[in-house]
Amino acid sequence: MKLAVIPARGGSKRIPRKNIRDFCGRPMISWSITAALQSGSFDRVIVSTDDDEIAEVAAAAGAEVPFRRPPALSDDHTPTRPVIAHAIDSVVTDGTRVASVCCLYATAPFVSPDDLRAGYAKLQEPGVSYSFPVTRFAFPIQRALRMETDGQVEMFAPENFLTRSQDLEDAWHDAGQFYWAAADQWRKDAPIFGAGAVGIPVPHWRVQDIDTEEDWRRAELLFGALGSGR
């Protein structure tokens, strides 16, 4: 079985109720659910939540909510891995064998069905432990500045001051949308960004962390501008 797990706890602090807040005409979580369903990559799409309202919205969008996440896995400091492992264990109680699992975040409106399919295809290659979307930093990180409290700035790496931007190595970062791995991999105490982690390049205009109201507004503007091309 190929399983999508969408973690969506109810206690978001920086943007209250952000998992089900209206985003461009729909509850935020519904964009991730729809992408997962349209990808055709999953036998089941489930939402892991501790919140009854989120469960209701997720079910209306087409996901399954077969359990409630326990309080011990629903606080601000709970990492992703035990949440996914709990979801897997909750599904296999009936003897079902789960082979591959995709952790898909509830606040990833720019995720596409094509990306999800590409992630699964990459996971099938030899030696791949995790596959997930990555994007280039928009500016060379080798020329990053440090700002002191009095406003003065200095380079983190002054030796790169005279190096042309085009001569610096591209730097990439996690897009924060989804992670594919074998079910057993989620149960291990191994880092996602360790050996066997493989990135799937996506354009940086389809990547936006949504942690503040400013992030949210920027994401809405970008989402609306992209329209059907997202």
UniProtKB/TrEMBL annotation:
<protein>
    <recommendedName>
        <fullName>CMP-N-acetylneuraminic acid synthetase</fullName>
    </recommendedName>
</protein>
<dbReference type="InterPro" id="IPR029044">
    <property type="entry name" value="Nucleotide-diphossugar_trans"/>
</dbReference>
<dbReference type="Pfam" id="PF02348">
    <property type="entry name" value="CTP_transf_3"/>
</dbReference>
<dbReference type="InterPro" id="IPR003329">
    <property type="entry name" value="Cytidylyl_trans"/>
</dbReference>
<dbReference type="InterPro" id="IPR020039">
    <property type="entry name" value="PseF"/>
</dbReference>
<dbReference type="InterPro" id="IPR050793">
    <property type="entry name" value="CMP-NeuNAc_synthase"/>
</dbReference>
<dbReference type="GO" id="GO:0008781">
    <property type="term" value="F:N-acylneuraminate cytidylyltransferase activity"/>
</dbReference>
